[in-house]
Amino acid sequence: MNARYDDATINFWKDIPEYQRMTLQFSAAQMRTGLAYSGVLFKYNQEFMQPFWIALDAFLSTEKEKLLSHTPADSLRDYVELLQFNLQIAKQGFHSGLEAMLGYHGNRADEGMQAWLNTIYNLDGDKIGDFAEKEASLLENLLYAYPKAIRDIKHEYGFHFDDGGYIKAGETDRFLIYQVLPTSAGAVRESGKPVLIVPPYVLGANILGFLPGENKSYAHAFANQGIPTYIRIIKNIDTTPAVQTLTGEQDAEDTRTLCEIIKKRHGQPVTLNGFCQGGFVSLTGLLSGKLDGLVDALITCVAPMDGTRSKALVEYMQHIPPRFRDLGYAVKPLPNGNRVVDGKVMSWVYKLKSMEREAPLFTLYRDMKMFDNGKCCPIQVSKTAAAINHWLIYDRNDLPEAITKMSFDSYTIPIDDKGNLPFKLFNRKLNFKRLQEKNIPFLICYAEHDDLVDKEAALAPLDFIPAEVTRFPKGHGAIATSWSRPDSACALHTRFGDNYRGPVRFHLDLETESKK
Question: What is the pTM (predicted TM-score) of this model?
């Protein structure tokens, strides 16, 4: 029966004139294109706007209180200014999206016209039906294949502490530490100098264990050199009240406890290595004095030491009316009464700051250009692209309010002329010069094209103390992704560029010096 049906179908198509077959093919492809285009438009807009509804709930809750403390005239003025600010942001997104759309369809119009000419005059090349099929296939790939590739990379991306490649070494009420074992041949030098890697709160730890199977992992770049390598993992904030109420003082005390465990295991002081926000928090712990005798070196990677020097973000915040420069607009209450900062809302702030590159329509056409292979076949999504998007989409963690307040202060209040941070821990001033007084070697790594942490923000300590500086090409996450490969141009265990030392090389040299 199936064979007869297939034969009948073939005979049916043979009996239809060529131009009718092409018309039917073109019409069917156009229907698929329309449906797929509607789907991807909805998908990209929904993903972008999802944090808005969370932020709106926090906004309304906060404004209920503020309306009582402001006159109606003041509130009206503030709301008008906020409306103007929103219109400016929307204008940026509209213009960038429109330019991307016109640029893409302008090129496609030329190709479509040529396809029509090929069809009408029976010329070599794609016919109009082929052209429409490719458009439909591209959009369907964006709608189905691309998200599937991102979901499927989950088992290879990041840390999987139950796969035998890690050893749980200790914990506190708020943190766990795991020893990262080598993925390559070779053993850990148990008497070697240990390193403790501190991930950022908002971006999560998985970016530092990016793709171990592909030799792209910041943490494994240390472990594969035989270094006793540990990573600090924050417990689940949704189920751990102690994390929900975590303060800067508790962070420093817990880091001390974890460093005591590591030093006892290996008999040597620890190199503290913080990535992004983790670098800033590591610095505060050192300056508080709580890590004295346990930590004797500091490495920071793309860490915002003085957020007020991040020009783009500061300029964005300055356009927000003063009334709305309040962390409370990102805070959400939990059923147990604790308050946390919503990680999706915080990441959304960075999207709004770069609206011309993050607008839904712009990102849609950017992805269409990226995956346009000119064929009617499934797109090939690299593991790196899938893992980066998995990180951007799924690794957004809620944050303790007190920890976020430290970073918020750093982005709104500059370091004073004596080198003091804009807040205290344990009622003690946090001054950069303490690192010099304690003779702690300090390596600052920054990214040349970082659109999250400006070079000036990362290098702020140099105004007060000497430190070694290493410049990496590319953007914010490249140190943990591109350059963590041991055969890359800026491999972390090598010297490169203008005799820069990667963080692994810096640590290995410290170990050699300590033996001497």
Answer: 0.90
